[in-house]
Amino acid sequence: MSLYRRGMDSDAIRISDCSKSFGGHRILTQISLRIESGERVAIVGPSGSGKSTLLRLIAGLECVDRNSGDIVVLGHPIQTRGRISKKIREVRTRIGVIFQQYNLVGPLSLLTNALLGAAGRTPVWRMVTGRIMPSDLQAARDALSIVGLSDHALQRASTLSGGQQQRGAIARVLVQGAHVVLADEPVAALDVESCGRVMRHLVELNESRGVTLLITLHQLDLARRHCHRIVALKSGKIVFDGTPESFDDAVAQQVFAC
User: Fold this and answer.
1) Measured distance between the N- and C-terminal CA atoms of the chain, rounded to whole angstroms
2) Hey, which residues does 35 pair with through a beta bridge?
3) Dihedral sign, CA of 45, 47, 53, 56?
4) Do 42 and 247 contact (CB within 8 A), yes or no?
5) Residue range 229-241: average pLDDT?
6) Total Cβ atoms within 10 A of residue 127
7) Is the pLDDT of residue 121 over 80?
8) Cα(219)–Cα(65) distance, rounded to whole angstroms?
9) Would you say residue 206 has pLDDT above 90?
10) Alpha helix (H) residue ranges in 96-146
């Protein structure tokens, strides 16, 4: 059972009045959003609505416009008025990011890729010399077992299918021990069967570990079926924030209308 209880837990993510522009073109406009600890929230919207940019801002991979707003994750400032926190590396150890294109290191084994989840808490000299803690190695093996990839642990990541690589990315987040997971279109390039497996693993990550999950999706049926809440973006603004039940076909038509 999910640990999420709306109204009882503290915010995992708090975004206040944030805007983002690229080359003078406004991508996001005055976004304010609160995600409670343990929630599964889908971000939906047309292509170009700012979904991926929003996740990158939360992860501290992009900076909000100067003087535009604040982002706090797990009680720690990520960005304040257009400046990324000097302690961002420490906070990132608890933020897992799953990308559409997996971002595994192709020449390395799947086991090694999973072990990279421990990089944030591992001294540089251990990573360079390959002296991995036995506990981290066991955590990587356990994570690959959870996502059903134990038999592929020593296989090069580049030789795996898209679905297997995405499950490998989830294993990396498990090893990381992330408290917040940001998943950017994690099933967009997958077949129906692989899509189902990846979504089930993400839901299990949320329900068994209480991880807060913020996921961008194109597939409305997946958002309605698997998430507690749907937030819709259109032209860089939040135009809907509510339950899957209230995001009916009429609302969807308005969100995705040209």
Assistant:
1) 39
2) 13
3) positive
4) no
5) 97
6) 14
7) no
8) 30
9) yes
10) 110-115, 124-129, 134-146
Instruction: Provide the 3-class DSSP secondary structure of residue 7.
Output: coil
Q: In the β-sheet with 180-184, what is the strand arrangement from edge to edge?
A: 95-98, 180-184, 212-216, 40-44, 229-234, 237-242
Q: Give me the residue spans of the domains in the chain.
A: 107-175
Q: How many whole angstroms separate alpha carbon 113 and alpha carbon 247?
A: 38
Q: Which residue has the tokens 């973006």?
A: 233
pTM, two decimals, is 0.90
Measured distance CA(254)–CA(258) in Å, rounded: 9
Among 7-11, 27-31, 78-82, the range scoring the smallest mean pLDDT is 7-11
Tokens of 56: 């990158």
CA-CA-CA-CA torsion sign (59, 60, 65, 69): positive
Strand partners, 40: 213
Token representation of residue 33: 């959003």
Quote the tokens at residue 59: 């992860």
Q: Taking the CA atoms of 58, 215, 36 and 1 in sequence, report the sign of the dihedral they define.
A: negative
CA distance 227 to 37: 14
